[in-house]
Design brief:
Blueprint: E1 5-9, H1 13-26, E2 29-34, H2 37-47, E3 51-55, H3 64-74, E4 79-83, H4 88-95, E5 101-104, H5 109-141, E6 146-151, E7 156-159, H6 161-167, H7 171-174, H8 180-184, E8 205-211, E9 214-224, E10 230-239, H9 241-261, E11 267-271, E12 277-280, H10 282-288, H11 309-321, E13 326-334, E14 340-349, E15 361-367
Parallel strand pairs: 1-2, 1-3, 3-4, 4-5
Antiparallel strand pairs: 6-7, 6-10, 8-9, 9-10, 11-12, 11-15, 13-14, 14-15
Helix pairs in contact: 2-3
């Protein structure tokens, strides 16, 4: 930790000079020596030292504790107190400022070095932890999903903005409250609040639940302390209502599609751009004499007679050049017994048509009666 910049706040000139000499010999940089708390507050803001050695008893109206309080209100710089007093009253008064150590006068060199190195290391770790916590906070608030942390007493220990917004509260108001307050207010279901989780349960739970006219994908995950004991649970709630609605719409479309194509006498085929069959009319196999067991494959070309292969390929190329267009066709298909079957109709592109029932290329054909 050499090269660290240290500020000394000490009103005894002899002690201050001795400290400066010792710190310099240890490899530290002393950015300033000041006798009063008022100067310490001002110079700490200007010089931005890596650490402050602060005597508790100082010249002037401000004590070292008062000065440290003001400095720590706007800075994270670690403060180590120097004091000739070790009674509980002084120590308790200094505790509230979050000091990184105490050194009793007269100062011993080894104790000084050890305390400074420990303080600088602890401060560096604190900064890393704060950065990590800020990163987690930003990530949690960057999603519309609700995230919160509860302990074994059902107390909310952390919550993101999405949950706070749903609850009509601030994150600060949520932290420390009982999660079942959100159940009582209709914000969460009992299961979302973890009512089914047994104390100390080490197995996570995931489930889908309909609640308050919405569908949610919920995950509840245990968190262990360093001793391996489960003490908290992280809860993730993702609104999947839109996905459910799309699934229902797709199911309804499929049912409607099947009801149509099962009753029509003509051929209806849904294709991908490359000619792969997505869903074909049963009438196609009926007219051509195929069954599920002996159908020729999953591509339109597998059903086309050799005489019409080039026309079929050209048909797909032309429709690709004209998105949402319509192309007429007259193709010869091959039946299961090798007989040519002529089908005439239209191929229309509905791949990006939100108003159309089917998604893809739709081939609608009529079998020429004379060739059936």
């Amino acid at each position: 930790m050499s090269e660290a910049s240290i500020m000394i706040v000490e009103d005894e000139a002899v002690t201050a000079m001795a400290l400066k000499r010792t710190l310099t010999n240890m490899g530290y940089s002393v950015c300033g020596v000041f006798p009063t708390g008022e100067q310490a507050v001002q110079k700490a803001a200007e010089l931005k030292p890596d650490l402050i050695l602060m005597d508790i008893k100082l010249a002037g109206k401000m004590t070292g504790i008062n000065a440290a309080t003001e400095i720590r209100a706007t800075s994270t710089v670690p403060v180590i107190y120097l004091t000739a007093f070790s009674d509980d009253r002084v120590v308790n008064a200094a505790k509230v400022t979050g000091p990184f150590g105490y050194i009793l006068k007269p100062v011993r060199e080894q104790e000084l070095k050890t305390t400074i190195e420990t303080a600088l290391y602890k401060h560096a770790m604190d900064l890393h932890l704060r950065e990590y916590q800020e990163t987690v906070r930003v990530l949690l608030n960057a999603t519309p999903d609700m995230h919160f942390l509860i302990d074994s007493e059902n107390t909310i220990r952390m919550a993101n903005q999405a949950l706070a917004k749903r609850a009509g509260k601030t994150v600060k108001e949520l932290v420390g409250s009982n999660v079942y307050d959100l159940v009582s207010s209709g914000c969460l279901s009992p299961r979302m609040a973890g009512h089914a989780v047994k104390p100390g349960q080490s197995r996570g739970e995931t489930f889908v639940e309909q609640f308050s006219e919405h569908w949610y994908d919920v995950g509840i995950y245990p968190i262990a302390n360093p001793d391996g004991k489960i003490t908290k649970y992280a809860v993730h709630i993702h609104d999947i209502t839109r996905i459910k609605m799309m699934e229902d719409q797709l199911r309804q479309n499929e049912e409607f599609f099947n009801s149509i194509i099962d009753d029509v006498a003509d051929v209806i085929i849904i294709l991908n751009d490359d000619g792969t069959l997505r869903q074909e009319s049963p009438s196609l196999n009926r007219y051509l004499g195929y069954s599920e067991e002996n159908n020729p494959g999953k591509k339109l070309y597998n059903y086309i007679h050799d005489d019409s292969l080039e026309d079929a390929r050209k048909l797909l190329v032309d429709i690709g050049k004209n998105p949402l267009g319509v192309q007429p066709f007259d193709l010869t298909f091959r039946s299961a017994d090798g007989r040519p079957v002529s089908i005439r109709g239209i191929l229309s592109d509905h791949s990006d048509d939100p108003d159309y029932l089917f998604d893809g290329l739709v081939l609608t054909g009529w079998v020429k009666k004379e060739l059936k």
